[in-house]
Amino acid sequence: MSKLVQGYEVVIGFETHAQLSTQSKIFSRASVAFGAEPNTQACAVDLALPGTLPVMNVGAVERAIEFGLAINAHIAERSVFGRKNYCYPDLPKGYQISQFEIPVVQGGEVSFFLEEGKESVRKTVRLERAHLEEDAGKSLHEDFIGQSGIDLNRAGTPLLEIVTHPDIRSSDEAVAYAKELHKIVTWIGICDGNMQEGSFRCDANVSVRKPGQPLGTRREIKNLNSFKFMQQAIDYEVRWQIEEIEDGRAIQQATVLFNPDTGETRAMRTKEDAADYRYFPDPDLPPLVIGRDWVERVKSQMAELPRVMAERFVKDYALPEYDATQLTQSKAVAAYFEATAKACGQPKLASNWIMGEVSRRLNASELGIEQSPVSAAQLAVLIGRISDNTISNNAARQVFDGLWNQVGEVDAIIEAKGLKQMNDTGELEKIIDDVLAANPKNVEEFKAGNSKALNGLVGPIMKASKGKANPAQVNALLMKKLG
Ligand code: ADP
Ligand code: MG
């Protein structure tokens, strides 16, 4: 059962436009490079001028196949391009070429972990389809001259529109889904994932209902281009819809925009239905036929997928599923982990350090793991010094700090800061004897069966050793002396 908001269940379905990382447009040879002077990169084909014919970009098809394989979907042997007819200033040709009845990628799923309290729970969102289509141009509203202009450079840019079933149940799930999808498309390299430039933009269809009721009417929040705005927009929209319903007003199906300055969503237009678009198969384009051999060829050339890699981490390194998923957030993190684990032979410790101290420090400095001042090789040496009892975990954090600030190598830092653990039993035994003599009450209580009294002894011992005693050894010696 999903969490309710004021007694309502939240229902969300996502449509994501991922710009495919081809050099040229989906049906023409014009460049898709970002940031060119307006209207310098749209050719006659992109504008559908009379006498031109679109030609399918094979690179775009290949990327769609890769996506389908990555999410375990069916790749249609035959899919069809249609014309979606509408009139808009940024679409002078009057229609957008898209796939409607038969999309190239059908079904599939995206799954990810969600933090729920202390637990992490796996959630799976089913995909309905992913289809190829061309982007439209862009309206530029130049407030400073009080005019609007049209830039058609984006016209004909290849997009993959990825549509989910309405399986998402909260803004947290929505963001987790979007992040996972973003990871997949960038991992397999079909999209650069640049959200500011609009290479990866999400529309969230949001409705609410009382549990057990049929789906409510949805409003579609358009073009969310940051994870932060996504969360804010959905939270606002959910509260707004509940208030409307509670006040006795029905929700109208609509397309809305999120304004980051006010934190509110506002209706842009009432929503068209498919019938309004007068879809029909594009007479200029034959059906897209994809043979099994083509799919197999693409498959054989694809890099290891994140979920496959995660399964391998569980199997080869005996990691919990959660760790494996975290460590396959990006190729760079995965590579860093594998290098560390192989060099130190302690995969679980490597995982703990990378998900803990390393991530914390990287996040705080807003660095990617590629820019980490501590290399995988250095981390492996550090982990080695913990597991051979040269240093304690506490001391290791100080060594890590030194590595981070690049003051030297692991052993030099241990030496310079005097962090070596006390492995000389004689010296340690003397400290323990002194502490026992100074704390007769704790000794008595412990002997009387109060195991907590031990803490009152371990603390002073660690202190007297200046933190250099090995806690396991201290425990063993204490037991021997008190037993
Ligand atoms: P379109 O927006 O192009 O008309 P669809 O009707 O196929 O397309 O739905 C688009 C998205 O809206 C899908 O992700 C779908 O899961 C989601 N959706 C459909 N109905 C609802 C609903 N009642 N509440 C929330 N999301 C919904
Ligand atoms: Mg839609």
Describe this structure in words.
The chain is an alpha+beta fold. The chain has three domains: 9-293, no CATH class; 304-417, no CATH class; 425-482, Arc Repressor Mutant, subunit A, CATH 1.10.10.410. It is 39% helix and 21% strand. The chain contains 15 helices and 17 strands. Strands 1, 2, 6, 7, 8, 11, 12, 13, 14 and 15 form a ten-stranded mixed beta sheet that branches. The protein has a three-stranded antiparallel beta sheet with strand order 5-4-16, with no helix packed on it. A two-stranded antiparallel ribbon has the order 3-17. The protein is elongated, with a radius of gyration of 30 Å. The mean pLDDT is 93. Bound molecules: adenosine-5'-diphosphate and magnesium ion. Residues 15, 203, 220 line the site of magnesium ion.
Rounded to the nearest angstrom, the radius of gyration is 30 Å
Main β-sheet, in a few words?
10 strands, mixed
Domain module count = 3
From the N-terminal CA to the C-terminal CA, the straight-line distance is 52 Å
Global geometry: elongated
Low confidence ranges? none
Per DSSP, what share of the residues sits in E-state strands of 2 or more residues? 15-25%
| Tally of DSSP helical segments | 15
Mean pLDDT across all amino acids: 93
Helix content: 25-40%
